[in-house]
């Protein structure tokens, strides 16, 4: 497998993973609103899942993008 094809494939995998993790809180909030109408409890779940999504985005940045930039600057 060529290096360019591997990079494009992995970039797509990272994009899809972060997009899915970003949309999980919205889908779960819709599900919880249909299941019960307790906005306060649903807000706590949304907050926790939003923190998880933010962690996925930050993890992607620090584990993939930042080391690549440091390697490129050498």
TrEMBL record:
One Pfam assignment: Zip
Location of the protein in the cell: Membrane
Record-level GO cellular component terms: membrane
Alphabetized InterPro entries for the sequence: ZIP
Lipid bilayer topology: Multi-pass membrane protein
Major localization listed first in the record, in broad terms: membrane
GO MF entries: metal ion transmembrane transporter activity
Domain of life: Eukaryota
The keyword Translocase is annotated on this UniProt entry: no
Transmembrane feature ranges: 45-66
Keywords noted in UniProt: Membrane, Transmembrane, Transmembrane helix
Keyword Transmembrane: yes
Protein's name according to its UniProt entry: Cation/H+ exchanger domain-containing protein
């Amino acid at each position: 497998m060529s290096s360019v094809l591997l990079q494009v494939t992995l970039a797509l995998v990272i994009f899809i993973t972060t997009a899915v993790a970003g949309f999980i809180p919205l889908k779960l909030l819709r599900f919880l609103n249909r299941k019960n109408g307790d906005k306060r409890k649903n807000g706590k779940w949304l907050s926790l899942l939003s923190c998880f999504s933010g962690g996925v985005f930050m993890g992607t940045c620090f584990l993939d993008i930042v080391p690549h930039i440091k390697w490129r600057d050498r």
